[in-house]
Amino acid sequence: MALKNSKSQTEILESSKIALTNVETNPIIKPLMEDLGYNTAKIDEGKALLNQAKTQFNSNQALEDKRAQAYKAFEEAKTSIEVKYAKDRKKAKIVFRQNTLVLKELGIKGIVPKSYVKWLETVNLYYNTLNTQPNILNQLATLQITQQHVTDLLAELNELENLRATYIQAKGNAQNATKTKSKAFKDLEKYMSDFFAVARIALESEPQLLEALGKLVKR
Question: pTM higher than 0.90 for the full model?
Answer without folding.
Answer: no
